[in-house]
Amino acid sequence: MKPFLLVLFTLLYIAAHAQTGTTGLRGLVRTAQGDALPYAAVVVKGPAPATRTTGTITNAEGRYEIGLQPGRYEIVFQFLGFQSVQKQVEISSGYVTLDVTMQEQAYRLAEVQTKAGNEDPAYTIMRRAIAKSRFHQLQVQRFRARVYTKSSFTVLDLPNLAEMAFRKQLKEAERDFNFKVGVPVLNETVAEVTFSQPNTYRQRIIANRNSQGDFLSPNQFYNASFYNPTIAGAVSPLSPKAFAYYKFEYKGTYREPGPDGKSVEVSKIQVIPRQYGEGVFRGTIFIIENTWAIHSLQLETVNNIGVSFTVRHVCSPIQGVWMPTNQRYNGSGSYLGVKATGQYVRSLTFSEFVVNPAFVEDIEVADEKKGPPAQTLSKSDIKGQELDELVKKQKEFSTKNLRQLVREYEKQEKQARKNRKEDVTVMRDDSLVVDSLARRRSNVFWDSLRSVPLTTAEVKSYRKADSLGLIREIKAPNDTTRRDSTQRKKSPNKFSPGQLLSGYTWRLNKHSSLIYTSPISRVEYNTVEGYTAEGALNLRYRPRVDSISRYRQITLSEWNFGGTGRYQFGRKQLVGYGLASYQHKQTRLALSGGRYLYQFNPDNPISPFLNSLTTLLFEQNFARLYQKDFMNLTVSASPFRERLTLTGGLEVAQRNELSNYREDIRPWIDWRNRAYLPNRLENAEIASTGFPTHQAITLNLTAAAKIGATQYVIRNGRRIARRDNDAPLLTLNYRKGMGDVDYDFAQATLSHSFETGIRSRLNYQLSAGAFLNDRKLYFPDFRHFAGNQFFFQQGDVVSSFRLLPYYQYSTGKRFAEGHVLAEFRKFVITQFTLVRLIGLKENLFVHYLATPTSRNYTELGYGLDGLIPQVLPFFRVEVISQWQDAQYKGLGFRIGTTLRFGR
């Protein structure tokens, strides 16, 4: 806990306080009742005759302040649900005070709403807005903006157990790092953000200040657009699929000043999810008539662990394009018993803004359900045509024609990118760089950048943080004997006896580390070895590391040298192995060798940690082990931008069968009708799984390739496959046994996971294989399967059987295996909104195995994820029926998790 707190509340160096700028604008924004309006948008245009747009937002007290050069400006005040206010102001010297009172917005209703039987006007508005959503996204060719973000994160409550267990650490955090339950963690960030079509975002943090620790990363809503079909995993109201998830109600229209002195009509639309919960929004969205762009919005959603988010955007016209210059995000909820709330405000000031020349001409959209346009185009009329040329010829398009037109434009642009040798599989390219001076900016610098003035409470919090920072400074940098007591820290490389018990990582220099794993941390038990203690020592050397920022590094190459030792108290023996490896980008070479014990199934169907519990507490020894003296060489590579992964291994080993270390092993708890089983297994295919000591040379070759186009995102130079649009993975494996064994084995596996709807997925894995030559092989060479015989299920939820005995149907002949898992956002009990809101999710699954003896073994099951919502959300409960040759064999229950405990 202590290291965690030290990381969370790392001290920020802040210089002395200084004066603000000399000229500008400040004031207070209130309602007609005199209440302050927090986070209202203040848009500044000018100075005349320039058209540059800047701005700020009011703080929680309704105050605003912005430094401006002398000149004449037009100031626009905006707040969701209130009438915009425009003011002209002349700034000559000093700060001009401009207080504003804003009136609540008055709406007028469309006449069509009063006519019985007519469709709600919201639907024709939304059809047009949806048809034009991609048009609005493509309007922006590129921009450069300065983004000011202020956040406040507050831990409201901790579980009683945590408060009792970590009371001392919490007191230290309160004293040393200004952290306390109920007190907000304040953060300010100023970043330079650039965007260019089609998908490139670059963010450089130039200033960061925190009242207690380091800066908070922008959340998933930042740099995301509601013109996208989904945002943060939820269906946007402007998605082409929106009508399947939402109902819309028209609430009225109002008029306000727009760009170039022209007024605009804005309609308020109520967004009503058909079933509220994870993956959808509810709230209101304001759409500008005729242009069908977003004017503003206030929408709420909930994520998969029950934390709710409220998003507020207010847009301003930038060169005729409505952009979200003022953004607010609120989040609240609890996770693992920790209750917290967060508030984020974001203000954008554009210094460069270029409109896509193909989208300069505006387009009128006709709703064909209300009345078709004067001319409707066919697919042949659109195919191969330039968008801007068609727009010049015809100003009005149907919603269908507009979607076809934009798709044709994107198709042509994609082909042009291919011709320029650009990677069209990259859907988004993001980078984040932190300036080396970001955390050392003076107050003078901050006051010149800050878009939102600090509140009284925030000033007080920063002053306390500043005083703590000064206490931590070295009083005499050149005198090593004069340091503050709070700075007396042990060298990270200094040895202490306690490190032998807990394990430690010594940083030897910039490129190398020595990693020690204590045997105490790996104490296990099984009936073959008895109690075991395993320790490791590893030297890691990284000759080349590309530093993207303080928090992001890309390792270009890495050397590892190490060894693992394991003492078996039951057998009174020491076993272990050594390892040497080299990795350069995606290519890895590893050499290992020694004596060690392995499960017959190399995929470890039960972890050593879990097997220790089942053996000691429940008198069930599930793990079956054999000994191997081996030398192994493995090479792996991922060419073609990781679309193909090749792995080759050659192993020479002497394999020995083992028995339990004693026949009269006594369990901790002596269960009636239970007894420890021998290490030799029972198998339906062979009379005995025993084998003599023998030499085996094994060649193992694997190729895994993604079939079809895989889409990627790039984050700080690292390519990451998009899980929501990944390609099927085909894996081919060939294994050849030589020496005292003689066999050839081949198998193929096809796996895929894809979305079937919002927060719904279908996952499958299909495998088949056979021993092409089975002249001589032993039980370790068999094809084993991911079974389970304990009430607790862990491992891959897709490819693991729930009730299958671990080795009963292992085969030395042939097999076919299939796994299907369907995850549902809304199925049976999740039809109820409350169930979805607390984070429960349902799934159905089927597991099938065909071997010469398995008799079409099948499992049909139902699972409920989030067994203990918001406390232990990663657990699930399952009920499974067992079948063989279509005959019912029994029912079982499992408590499961996707987390792995132990190794």
Structural class: mainly beta
Q: Give Rg in angstroms.
A: 32 Å
User: Which consecutive residue ranges, at least 5 long each, have pLDDT under 50?
Assistant: 1-21, 112-116, 213-219, 468-490, 547-552
Question: The biggest beta sheet, please?
Answer: 19 strands, mixed
Tally the helices. Answer: 15
User: What is the arithmetic mean of pLDDT?
Assistant: 83
Shape: elongated
Q: Give the end-to-end Cα distance, rounded to a whole number of Å.
A: 22 Å
The total strand number stands at 44
Percent of residues in beta strands?
A: over 45%
Bin the helical content: 10-25%
Keywords: Carboxypeptidase, Coiled coil, Hydrolase, Protease, Signal
Region (Disordered): 473-498
Pfam family, one: DUF5686
Biased composition (Basic and acidic residues): 473-487
Task: Describe this entry's structure for a reader.
With 903 residues, the chain is mainly beta. The protein has a domain at 681-897. The strands form six sheets. The chain has a 19-stranded mixed sheet that branches. A 13-stranded mixed sheet has the order 14-15-16-17-18-19-20-9-10-11-23-34-35, with helices on both faces. Strands 1, 4, 7 and 8 form a four-stranded mixed sheet that branches. β18 and β19 form a beta hairpin.
